[in-house]
Design brief:
Layout lengths: L10 H71 L13 H4 L4 E8 L3 E6 L10 H8 L4 E5 L7 E7 L8 E7 L1 H11 L5 E5 L5 E4 L5 H13 L2 E8 L2 E10 L2 H4 L4 E8 H4 L1 H29 L5 H13 L14 H34 L4 H15 L4 E7 L7 E7 L10 E6 L2 H9 L4 E4 L5 H4 L9 E9 L2 E10 L7 H26 L4 H13 L8 H15 L4 H13 L9 H4 L7 H8 L1 H9 L6 H9 L20 H16 L10 H10 L7 H13 L8
Antiparallel strand pairs: 1-2, 1-5, 3-4, 4-5, 6-7, 6-10, 8-9, 9-10, 11-12, 11-16, 12-13, 14-15, 15-16
Helix pairs in contact: 1-4, 1-8, 9-10, 10-11, 10-14, 11-14, 15-17, 16-17, 16-22, 16-24, 17-21, 20-21, 21-22, 22-23
């Protein structure tokens, strides 16, 4: 048998060959196949995502171009409506201002029929529908188009002349399509075709004519939604197509346009194909190298494996004193020596880990801080030998870095007296302890000198310090003292670290019970933030309102428990908005009666949410009444004057002030001076005058009321 096949004589060799085939060749092939598929899928997703962004960017470019056109038309309409601009009264004065820009021509219509061409070709009048008249009456641009036998349709923008009724005087301008489609070409990336379609599928613009089948498929996708993508086979190649809708009706009362972006799949996936070839060659090379390596390994002697197997069996049975004898003069002999060393090490570690488990259970089984300290000092010497041991604890409520330190001066005598003293950790020493992931060895005159100076008399020659850290804070320090400088093994340092970590957990758990009662306000703050994130426009609103309300309450001399009630009520005042749809909260325009009715119900919904919680019953009146007005015209119950709780009256001023100064989808935020003026003007009607006076006293202290009369 040739040498290359000699390994097949033994069952071990045959098994290795089989394992190589099953574990290297087959997984390698599967890995290569699935990784390539995943790469292709990811690349396809990324390509479609980029095309989606491109179609949206082109749509935004179109919308931006039309907005720019609308601005020029509005400017021209303003000039026409301004009787103080004699320089532009003749039609010949207009051409130089707009020619070769966004507008090709402008026509002025009077009394619905008389037309005056200001420049360019005459423009046709806009449609005279009720919707068009209403749109123009609100001083908005009206976009419409007219068929063009010579090419793409002509587009026109109509707008009422400033100060004139659209029924009497109207300005119509022709849009320069070169300007509009030039923006589309600028926004389109290379090797990408763009088409802009009307709702009925008619091309308004296209860099290359789309096949009829693609247009039909675009129509199908458009019926499903405002955006979409698909692939369309085209001979030997495939087109990747993405479409997006340009929404024109709100701004221009025009049917929405469809932007179609297409790109050949071969162009898009050229990089992926190159990667596929390189990946295939790499996988093949890896498999070849692995095969050669397996062949070399199989040829090694397999006789010592039986000896090692028997030794392993004895070790697994708990016989850690078992040893193996192999004298082969090669790596197997080295392996046997390592095996024996490992067996001895495992025996020691097994015994120590058993002791560690007992110690950890003892520490974690205690909840009293004193018992935890005693458990640590009683047991640490059993797994990390030392001459003396101590545990220094930082008081989380103290304003200094002084520690309460418990010292057992002879760690080998258990039980023995534990001495209690106070030691001081400097800020730099605390920072050093927090930065250490492992224990720190400190000599007699080295760092931590102040902390260790009052340790014992005589003082040990060296110390091993292990920080107790919980949630990023130093809870304490476990200190082991040595008469001679210690040389701890990595294993002993790991054990010390584990004891320190478990001690930190136990100490933190005992302190956590004391902290739970303080977490109530944190929970309410988190709930308030959850409500505020229902709309990006109200982020942080509840906390800002709460802060201002508490300031006003203190200025009015409310006692601390009333301030605490304001704190809770302020955080929860808008909790009822959790049931208001974001479409209403984020609506950029005026709310309908039905939508405003939903908003008016949020105080009552907030009260209903809080009703089952016993310790929040006093907050319910604040939540329910914070939209009541001092004059009785508020909601939900129309309360007035003193019948509204003082907390709700305070919160009303803080709530409205923050709402007015903040941006909203339907308006920009007011200046603070304007907010102050509004607050003063509505004192006695919307707001309690006493609360407003307190509010202005606060602002006066901040120096922000000088410009408010």
């Amino acid at each position: 048998m040739p040498p290359i096949f000699s390994n097949l004589r033994s069952s071990f060799g045959r098994r290795i060959l089989l394992l190589f085939s099953l574990c290297i060749l087959a997984p390698g092939a599967l890995f290569g196949y699935f990784s390539l598929r995943q790469v292709e899928e990811k690349f396809h997703q990324e390509t479609m995502r980029r095309m989606r962004l491109q179609s949206r960017e082109i749509g935004m470019a179109i919308h931006g171009g039309l907005t720019s056109v609308g601005a020029e038309v509005e400017f021209l309409a303003g000039i026409l409506g301004d009787g103080t601009t004699p320089a532009f009264r003749r039609s010949s004065d207009w051409g130089w201002l707009f020619h070769d820009r966004a507008l090709l021509g402008a026509t002025r219509f009077r009394d619905g029929s008389r037309a005056e061409a200001l420049f360019g070709k005459p423009c046709p009048p806009p449609p005279r529908t009720a919707a068009a008249r209403s749109h123009l009456a609100f001083n908005q641009g009206l976009l419409y188009m007219q068929g063009n036998a010579e090419g793409y349709p002509r587009f026109f923008m109509a707008r009422a002349i400033r100060g004139k009724s659209p029924e009497r005087e109207l300005l119509v301008c022709e849009v320069n399509t070169d300007y509009l489609w030039g923006r589309v070409r600028d926004a389109a990336p290379p090797v990408t075709e763009v088409a802009v379609l009307s709702p009925d599928g008619a091309p308004l613009f296209q860099t290359r004519p789309l096949p009829v089948a693609v247009l039909e498929r675009v129509e199908q996708e458009r019926r499903r939604g405002t955006a979409g993508n698909f692939e369309w086979g085209q001979g030997s190649d495939t087109l990747l197509v993405d479409l997006a809708t340009v929404f024109l009706k709100p701004a221009f009362l025009s049917d929405d346009w469809i932007v179609v972006v297409s790109r050949p799949r071969s162009e898009a996936f050229a990089v992926a194909k190159r990667f596929t070839r390189a990946h295939f060659l790499s996988i093949s090379l890896v498999v070849l190298i692995a095969g050669l390596f397996a062949h070399v390994q199989v040829r090694r002697s397999v006789a010592p494996l039986a000896v090692l197997k028997e030794g392993t069996r004895r070790i697994s049975g708990g016989d850690f004193d078992s040893r193996v004898e192999i004298r082969s003069g090669d790596e197997f002999e080295d392996l046997a020596r390592s095996f024996n060393a490992m067996a001895g090490h495992l025996g020691r570690e097994f015994r120590i880990q058993s002791e560690m488990g007992r110690i950890v259970r003892t520490i974690l089984g205690e909840t009293d801080e004193g018992k935890i300290v005693e458990a640590v000092l009683d047991n640490v010497n059993a797994v990390v030998p030392c001459d003396c041991a101590g545990l220094s604890l930082l008081d989380p409520g103290a304003m200094t870095n002084e520690t309460i330190t418990y010292i057992r001066e002879d760690a080998s005598i258990v039980p023995s007296a534990i001495r209690k003293t106070n030691l001081f950790l400097s800020t730099e020493e605390i920072r050093r302890m927090l930065s250490e992931e492992k224990s720190v060895i400190a000599g007699k005159d080295a760092e931590f000198g102040d902390f260790l100076s009052r340790w014992t008399d005589p003082r040990p020659a060296a110390f091993l310090l292990s920080p107790l850290v919980s949630r990023g804070e130093l809870v304490g320090v476990l200190v082991l003292g040595y008469r001679d400088r210690p040389e701890p093994t990595p294993e002993s340092l790991v054990r010390l670290r584990k004891i320190a970590d478990q001690s930190a957990i136990a100490l933190s758990r005992s302190r956590l019970l004391k902290e739970l009662s303080q977490n109530d306000l944190g929970t309410l703050t988190a709930l308030a933030r959850t409500v505020d994130t229902n709309s990006p426009w109200t982020a942080g609103h509840s906390e800002r309102v709460t802060g201002l309300a508490m300031e006003i309450g203190r200025e009015m001399g409310l006692p601390p428990h009333e301030i605490d009630l304001l704190h809770r009520g302020g955080l929860l005042h808008d909790i009822g908005k959790i049931g208001v749809p974001p479409s209403i909260l984020d609506k950029p325009g005026k709310l309908t009666e039905e939508e405003f009715a939903v908003i008016r119900r949020h105080p009552s919904k907030g009260a209903m949410i809080l009703e089952p919680i016993p310790n929040l019953q006093k907050v319910i009146s604040i939540v329910t009444q914070h939209h009541e007005r001092y004059d009785g015209k508020g909601y939900p119950d129309g309360l007035s004057g003193e019948s509204i709780s003082v907390h709700a009256r305070i919160l009303a001023v803080a709530d409205v002030s923050d709402a007015l100064v903040s941006d909203r989808p339907y308006r920009p935020g007011w200046s603070w001076e304007k907010v102050l003026e509004y607050t003063r003007e509505n004192a006695g009607s919307q707001f309690d005058p006493v609360v407003v006076e307190a509010f202005f006293r606060i602002e006066a202290k901040k120096g922000r009321t000088e410009r408010v009369s």
